């Protein structure tokens, strides 16, 4: 999948560049066995199977993390369940982000309710 990533230089100027991440758009390479590939909510996008249920929004629409599509288990012990404001996460954030004086959950529960790492 391609994502736009802002890149800054030493003077603070920002340019955007497209970086290719694992997975992709379009047809799955024929050399890959089907068990290594997972399709995203957008049928034109795919990821590697081990990227499902890893807590990170690899598909861009959270379809690799959401139940019932992927049957992902609930947040594990190293995660806090909330509605993240960070695009990278879908339903949980790493507990290492709790109580760091920065809002990561829409309800601020990462700062006031989460017990921390």
Automatic annotation (TrEMBL):
InterPro entries: LDL_receptor-like_sf, LDLRAD1_C
DNA-binding recorded as keyword: no
Lineage: superkingdom: Eukaryota
Pfam families: LDLRAD1_C
Disulfide bond in keyword set: yes
The name this protein goes by in its record: Low-density lipoprotein receptor class A domain-containing protein 1 isoform X3
Species whose genome carries this gene: Chrysochloris asiatica
Record's keyword terms, sorted: Disulfide bond, Lipoprotein, Receptor
Start and end residues of each LDLRAD1-like C-terminal domain: 73-112
């Amino acid at each position: 999948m391609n994502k736009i990533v802002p890149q800054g230089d030493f003077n603070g100027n920002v340019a955007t560049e497209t970086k290719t991440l694992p997975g992709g758009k379009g047809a799955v390479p024929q050399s890959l066995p089907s068990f290594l590939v997972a399709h995203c909510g957008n049928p034109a996008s795919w990821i590697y199977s081990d990227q499902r249920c890893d807590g990170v929004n690899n598909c861009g629409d959270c379809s690799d993390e959401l139940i019932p599509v992927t049957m992902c288990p609930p947040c594990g012990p190293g995660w806090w369940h909330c509605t993240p404001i960070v695009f990278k996460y879908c339903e949980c954030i790493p507990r290492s982000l709790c109580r760091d004086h920065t809002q990561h959950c829409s309800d601020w529960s990462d700062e006031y309710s989460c017990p921390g790492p």
